[in-house]
Amino acid sequence: MNLNATLIAQIVVFMILWWFTMKFVWPPITKALDERATKIADGLAAADKAKSELASANQRVQQELAQSREDIAKRIADAEKRGNTLVEDAKSRAAAEAAKIVADAKAEADQLVVRAREALREQVATLAVKGAEQILQREVSPQVHADLLSRLKTEL
Q: Which residues are listed as membrane-spanning (predicted)?
């Protein structure tokens, strides 16, 4: 066998294998590598975008929480004001009711005093008539002396 012919045959076979590899094997491999590199780049870009969106979302959440806290504080303050207003209204109504009850009680007491005075006047007038009867030893008629008895009542 000839060494030159073997070497040339091997070079031809190598060139055919190289051509076959470059034509049919290498493009799918480079295409797969390029697609993978694109996917990795897209994934990194998506991760960066998600990271920035997460930071933005966290910032919005913090703003919402701050807003909610302010709203809650305002509502609590309003509720306390309403509560104080209701307590003050209840106190003023209770004071008015107490004053009314006291006034009614005073009026009733005044009426009782007037009635008691009237009853006492009647009793004094009756006692005066009986006393006069005993002094005069005769009966004094209340119908006849009604004018005298009414003057006596008013004087008492």
A: 6-26
